[in-house]
Design goal:
The protein has 659 residues and is of the alpha+beta class. It is built from 21 helices and 18 strands. The protein has three domains: 192 residues, no CATH class; 216 residues, Metalloenzyme, LuxS/M16 peptidase-like (Cytochrome Bc1 Complex, Chain A, domain 1), CATH 3.30.830; 184 residues, Cytochrome Bc1 Complex, Chain A, domain 1 (2-Layer Sandwich), CATH 3.30.830.10. Strands 8-9-13-10-12-11 form a six-stranded mixed beta sheet, with helices on both faces. A hairpin with a 7-residue loop joins strand 16 and strand 17. The relative contact order is 0.09.
Length: 659
């Protein structure tokens, strides 16, 4: 005998109502309706029990329609139904009561449960559409203040439910039908299955553990060796960094330093193609990077992962269209072998078609999930606002439909051709930070990458400033619990400009620091959002930086969040920041910058980027000193000159009740 349970549920105050499972039965919980007052409870009882009393679904053993279909076709051995009224919990006066309606069907041995569940769903939804007759009796089920109704007594399976409800007036068929159409819908249904076995195999019961005895024999591991202090001032970082170029042109920066666990962090970047050759190739480029670790000419996908596990290494490879980014974590005694594995993955991939199919499914599912996600929608709309690049350009901000079309159209032949044409190390940059032997790493790099060049030369794709129209846009995302605010404007500034330190500090005070103005008001003082921030994506080659702000909040708080955001921005521009506020923020920001230089992964990323920009840590030192010299008037003037409220683009997405 099997048990199937399918239920139709009306969500109430985030309460999850699970279907009851009866041995030998299929159960359907048809309705959970919020009821607050006694009158609502009385009328709801009459409405919903009217749906199941006679003829169609059945209560009290009368279920002619279901019995005829399920029984005559030998789908079921018995047909069940029940209704239950639940008052609010004690002390929860504001919580709604619940009215539950449940159907059940016992299954003969060997009957396919999915087929029976499908028949039950069809019967209920057919009833919701077809309706009830005008003459159907939907009168009083419980004539007194309390009553007992026996709902099931068939096939040896019995269920009784106690009903406590005042008498309710008779209801017209159209009122009952309205409830059926509102509640008996696929999105309001849950299905569960219990399949008993003749010989269940059970896990052994856990044995009692004597903790005291265990502690008597416990021997802790030896403490990790203390790591010597490492000076992360810019001058010392430059003094200890070894820079050189491989025979193929790859630039390398190695920063050996003591680390806990003797770890090594590696960052690697290289460009592929150019503005013209990358037209229509962005999705192909992304798939190439994602498929590199899915198999090589000498290693299968599983063998690559096993090799990484053996080396205690972690590898991640991604592409933004015109640039490939590699992140590698290894240990002192495995870093040379990890570099050899990385070279095999980058140089000898086989691109199995099954892996491409898998990645396409994952990509399509991810894009589909973003379609109604407020955060993804806001990010996409802001990226496309003012976008001057045509479809196919690697810089083009794609719509969700364009992402899907490109993913579906990508072929294995395109992936292989892209790799063969564009991948090479001639313009790559490689940085390693951590506990390693520099000479051993240099030998490994020379051996694995020294002769690796691409047939086609790569050149950087420029991203100059473009105009973005200001304005406000509201996008509806029904049934989403969170809402999103995004704000953006673009600046003709890079981190090489003299105003960069002042603007960076102004943004830190406004919305990036832990004690920022937006955070203190919108998150802490007024409790309107789950998070609020501002940030700047600084250009370093292109004179093009993007200032943006955002907040995540409950949809009901939309107007308050937007008003507070605008008011705090206006206040900062009107009144400026105080001298004390600026002095505190300077110290906090400088501490943050020092801390980032003490983190190996951030150091490796900074080094690999600096190799392309021909920078050293002296650049960071100059910025630190410029920040330390800033006055409140300099910070306020920079903000007033460059941050213009009338030039901002506001985008909001959520389940808002008003536009």
């Amino acid at each position: 005998m099997q048990i199937l349970s399918a239920s139709w549920v009306v969500p109430v105050a985030a309460m999850l109502c699970l279907p009851a499972l009866w041995y030998g039965s299929l159960s359907m919980l048809l309705g959970v309706i919020p009821l607050t007052t006694p009158e609502e409870r009385r009328r709801a009882w009459a409405r919903v029990t009217g749906l199941v009393r006679r003829r169609q679904i059945g209560v009290g053993g009368e279920a002619p329609r279901r019995a005829a279909v399920l029984g005559d076709e030998q789908h079921a051995a018995a047909v069940l139904a029940r209704a239950e009224l639940r008052a609010p919990e004690h002390g929860e006066r504001r919580s709604p009561g619940l009215l539950l309606l449940e159907l059940g069907t016992s299954l003969p041995a060997g009957r396919e449960e999915q087929a029976v569940a499908g028949v039950e769903r069809e019967l209920v939804e057919e009833h919701a559409v077809a309706g009830v007759g005008a003459g159907d009796d939907h009168g009083r089920l419980a004539p007194g203040a309390a009553g007992r109704a026996r709902l099931v007594d068939q096939g040896g399976v019995a269920l009784a439910v106690v009903v406590r409800v005042h008498a309710a007036p008779p209801l017209a068929g159209d009122e009952v039908q309205r409830v059926a159409q509102a509640r008996f819908v696929p999105a309001n249904r849950t299905t569960a299955t219990y399949v008993p076995t003749d010989r269940p195999q059970r896990a052994p019961a856990p044995e009692r553990v004597d903790v005291a005895q265990q502690m008597n024999t416990f021997k802790p591991q030896a403490a990790a060796a203390a790591v010597p202090a490492f000076d992360t001032t810019p001058s010392q970082l430059d003094a200890k960094t070894q820079r050189f170029v491989l025979p193929n042109g790859m630039k390398v920066a190695l920063l050996p330093k003591p680390t806990r666990g003797r770890t090594v962090k590696v960052a690697m970047q290289f460009r592929v193609g150019d503005e013209r050759s990358l037209v229509g190739q962005r999705e192909v480029s992304e798939f190439v990077a994602a498929m590199l670790d899915k198999g090589t000419t000498t290693l299968s996908r599983l063998q690559i992962q096993d090799r990484l596990d053996t080396l205690q290494a972690e590898l991640s490879i991604g592409s933004s269209g015109d640039q490939v980014d590699v992140s590698l974590l290894a240990r002192r005694d495995t870093v040379a072998d990890a570099i050899a594995l990385l070279a095999s993955v980058l140089r000898e991939p086989v691109f199995p078609e099954s892996a491409l199919d898998e990645l396409k499914r994952q990509t399509i599912a991810a894009v589909q999930a973003q379609r109604d996600d407020p955060e993804a929608i806001v990010e996409n709309v802001l990226a496309r606002r003012g976008d001057p690049y045509p479809p196919g350009d690697v810089r083009h901000a794609r719509t969700f439909d364009e992402m899907l079309d490109e993913a579906r159209a990508t072929t294995v032949d395109q992936v292989k051709a892209f790799h063969a044409r564009f991948y090479g190390g001639g313009q790559a940059r490689f940085a390693a930070v951590g506990d390693f032997d520099p000479a051993a790493v240099q030998r490994a790099l020379t051996q694995q990458f020294g002769d690796w060049v691409a047939p086609s030369t790569a050149s950087r794709v420029e991203r100059p400033l473009f105009a973005v129209a200001p304005g406000r846009e509201v996008i509806a995302t029904p049934d989403k619990q969170n809402a999103m605010l995004g704000v953006q404007m673009r600046w003709s500034i890079s981190d090489n400009d003299a105003v960069y330190p002042a603007l960076a500090l102004a943004n830190y005070i406004l919305g990036s620091g832990g004690d920022s103005r937006f955070w203190k008001r919108i998150r802490e003082r007024e409790g309107l959002s789950y998070g609020v921030w501002t940030t700047v994506n600084w250009g370093d080659v292109d004179v093009h930086s993007v200032w943006s702000g955002g907040a995540i909040f409950a949809p009901a708080n939309r107007d308050k969040v937007e008003t507070a955001f605008r008011e705090e921005l206006a206040k900062a521009l009107r009144d400026g920041f105080s001298e004390a506020e600026v002095q505190n923020a300077k110290q906090s920001l400088l501490n943050f910058r020092r801390l980032s230089r003490a983190q190996d992964e951030r150091l490796a990323q900074s080094l690999v980027r600096a190799l392309e920009l021909n920078r050293t840590f002296e650049f960071a030192d100059r910025v630190d000193k410029a920040i330390a010299r800033l006055s409140a008037s300099q910070v306020n003037n920079a903000l007033r000159v460059h941050l213009k409220p009338d030039a901002l683009a506001f985008v909001l997405a959520g389940d808002f009740k008003q536009p």
